[in-house]
Write a structure and sequence with these properties.
Belongs to the prokaryotic molybdopterin-containing oxidoreductase family. NasA/NapA/NarB subfamily. The chain is α/β, with parallel strands linked by helices. The structure holds iron/sulfur cluster.
Length: 718
């Protein structure tokens, strides 16, 4: 039996795993005791990775060879790789010739390894000359990115997991850590056991298992986080709990913000949030009086039409109290996907360039063009996730290349997404599994290698880079994602000689791509020029930055009080509370929120194939408060029509003490095959995202998946 060290592909905690294999079969998985993210622990999802990999349905569902269809009326048929790659290159080049490079859109994934991400980014922005490349990480952490840059000057979470054990107060906002980041939550529980004086505050509309474990739960009304944080800052000011020395020496903009939060008295803020005033005051005191306060936050802040403002308002609290750059203190955004961070590092979003450079900065564009050896990087902003599918639905984007993600389930407002997939002239889907809803729209299906079959790196929530290693070869003729991208890129180079005077993709291994990527980081905030594959082999996973000469990574940032802004100071963000995009009203009187279950992952393409992972929750439902169940005359299991302005689905209702009156919760995982219904234009529904809105944050462009106004009607059975 062989043992291969790698990483769990499910979430941003980034746990190390040891894969056991015999020949070409994976036979077991256990936690890597030496990996600093998990020290050998795995949650229910990670510990069953080998079972999902071996599940008969998983094998049956694997894409083993390229498939192509000659017309939309015919089913796809197997073709050779050469035919598929030539077809892709020829049709992409045709679209570019006829409509220009911005008629092509790439929608990629936080599942990809950093090396995959790098190649796709260079292919789109460098070779094709379009910035239309975005990722499903847009749905997960783009608000955190925008707020870090706005306040601290760089997209870099300053804290680390070890800070959980050094904090005196942990403030969890918009994160059901117990379900979404279970191994990190084990640390929080451990820290509480070791230090009963540790205060845990959870701000969440639902009384989740995370909130249940808190010393103080703040059941805010959906979307009111900015009011909460401003109200807390008001208390900190009034009660003299500011770190005035830190504010004076290391920040700018406090006086402007002070004037703004004067209006957010505890009474006003508590009323906006639907809280008791004394709870808000208590939270502020614990935050400000603590020797070290660590904030952990996730989609509850990010997936919002004011996501950037929410993130920034929370960071304001840390700057005002000097709770940053010290052990146990700091704002710490948690990433949902295993490699959302790696994608950010290579600039894998429509508005970013390699190594945290900005597309809007002409110097950055020129730098990247020089590093890549292309004439230029175009200045036209690329379309972000929601915008890309809207542009395709309007007919502006003609070709979509979708990699390792399932927008026909995971994007909000499925009506528009499915119109886009139908209208696009060319849909390329690069996938491991043939069964995702998006595959049904593909003109070309390219079989991709997946977990345990690929080599490269990922970066977890705490900036820690870990090697991902192949334990077994991919089945059939499936190929690694970077390899497929390079194979098509080389064919496109021949058709676009003006943009590729020499080959831009000379890679023969992920390591060659990594070496080029780390060179682009030289002198940047995330400089990893010292971090070679050999060093990762020798030292194990490391946190960036790690510039030339460094012998180890850096646990936490800004310990010297200097921030990567032009004047070295962090900036307070003067933001205002803005209500949710679609407030509930008489016609749609219930606030719907979405989220994860403990044992399922994304659209269930992996976890949905393993019976034991349904032991926790076996079927989809809408959770309603007991009061709303009674008001509507519902009993557990009664079917209800759930309707928003965009679509309608049918689900059983379930009374739940976790949900407040006039609110509802539906897990995000269940798709077409589990949830019947339809979008507003009559297509089959795609789970809860038939209902959700594509309203998004004006800064981060992250959609408000956490809130939609709905109505519920008891289904009449014949
Ligand atoms: Fe995998 Fe996340 Fe669970 Fe760790 S916590 S085992 S990374 S799903």
């Amino acid at each position: 039996m062989r043992e291969t060290k790698s990483t769990c592909p499910y979430c941003g905690v980034g746990c190390g795993v040891i894969i056991e294999s015999e020949g070409e079969q994976i036979v077991g998985v256990r936690g890597d005791p030496q990996h600093p993210a998990n020290f050998g622990r795995l949650c229910t999802k990670g510990s069953t990775l080998h079972l999902t990999a071996m599940a008969p349905l998983m094998r049956q569902n694997r894409l083993l060879e390229p498939m192509m269809r000659v017309s939309r009326q015919q089913p796809p048929r197997p073709v050779s790789w050469d035919v598929a790659l030539d077809e892709a290159a020829q049709r992409l080049a045709g679209v570019i010739r006829q409509h220009g490079p911005d008629a092509v859109g790439f929608y990629i994934s936080g599942q990809l390894l950093t090396e995959d991400y790098y190649v796709f980014n260079k292919l789109a922005k460098g070779l094709l000359g379009t910035n239309n490349i975005d990722t499903n990480s847009r749905l997960c952490m783009s608000s955190a990115v925008a707020a870090y840059k706005q306040t601290l000057g760089a997209d870099a979470p300053p804290a680390c997991y070890d800070d959980v054990h050094r904090a005196q107060t942990i403030f969890i906002a918009g994160s059901n850590t117990a379900y979404a980041h279970p191994i990190l939550f084990r640390r929080i529980e451990e820290a509480k056991r070791a230090n009963p004086a540790l205060r845990i505050i959870v701000a969440d509309p639902r009384r989740t298992p995370t909130a249940e474990a808190a010393d103080l739960h703040l059941p805010v009304q959906p979307g009111t986080d900015v009011a909460l944080f401003h109200g807390m800052l008001h208390v900190l000011i009034e009660e003299g709990l500011l770190d005035t020395r830190f504010i004076a020496q290391h920040t700018t903009g406090f006086e402007t913000l002070r004037a703004t939060v004067r209006r957010y008295t505890p009474r006003t803020a508590a009323a906006l949030c639907g809280l008791e005033e004394r709870s808000l005051v208590q939270a502020a005191r614990w935050f400000g009086q603590s020797t070290a306060t660590l904030s952990l936050y996730c989609q509850g802040l990010n997936q919002s039409a004011s996501g950037t403002a929410k993130n920034a308002a929370l960071i304001n609290l840390h700057l005002a109290t000097g709770q940053i750059g010290r052990p146990g203190a700091g704002p710490f955004s948690l990433t949902g996907q295993p490699n959302a961070m790696g994608g950010r590092e290579v600039g894998g979003l429509a508005n970013l360039l390699s190594a945290h450079r900005d597309l809007s900065d002409p110097h950055h564009r020129a730098e990247v063009a020089r590093l890549w050896g292309v004439p230029d990087v175009p200045a036209t902003p690329g379309t972000t996730a929601v915008e890309m599918f809207e542009a395709a639905a309007r007919g502006q984007i003609k070709a979509l290349w979708i990699v390792c993600t399932n927008p026909a389930q995971s994007m909000p407002d499925q009506r528009t997404v499915r119109q886009a997939l139908e209208r696009a002239e060319l849909v390329i889907v690069q996938e491991a599994y043939a069964t995702t809803a998006t595959c049904a729209y593909a003109d070309l299906l390219l079989p991709a290698a997946t977990w345990a079959e690929k080599d490269g790196t990922v970066t977890n929530s705490e900036r820690r880079v870990t090697r991902v290693r192949a334990a077994v070869p991919p089945p059939g003729s499936a190929r690694c994602d970077w390899r497929i991208a390079v194979d098509i890129a080389r064919r496109l180079e021949r058709r676009l000689p003006a943009r590729a005077p020499h080959t831009l993709f000379p890679y023969d291994s992920p390591e060659a791509i990594w070496n080029e990527h780390r060179e682009t980081t030289r002198g940047r905030d995330l400089d990893i020029t010292a971090l070679s594959y050999a060093l990762l082999e020798e030292l194990g996973p490391q946190q960036w930055p790690m510039p030339q000469g460094a012998t180890t990574g850096r646990a936490r940032l800004y310990e010297d009080g200097r921030f990567p802004t032009p004047d070295g100071r962090a900036r307070f963000a003067n933001v205002e509370y803005v209500p949710v995009a679609e407030a509930r009203d008489v016609r749609y009187p219930i606030s719907l929120t979405t989220g994860r279950l403990r044992d399922q992952w994304h659209g269930m393409s992996r976890t949905g194939q393993l019976g034991r992972l349904f032991g926790h929750v076996s079927e989809p439902c809408i959770e309603l408060s007991p009061a709303d169940m009674a008001r509507q005359g519902l009993r557990d299991g009664d079917l209800v029509h759930i309707t928003s302005r965009r679509g309608s689905i049918v689900l059983p209702a379930q009374g739940s003490g976790e949900v407040a009156p006039a609110q509802a919760f539906i897990a995000m995982h269940w798709g077409d095959e589990f949830v019947s219904g339809q979008t507003g234009s009559g297509q089959p529904a795609a789970g809860v995202n038939a209902l959700t809105t594509s309203a998004h944050c004006p800064v981060s462009k992250q959609p408000e998946l956490k809130h939609a106004a709905i109505k519920i009607l008891k289904a009449e059975l014949p």
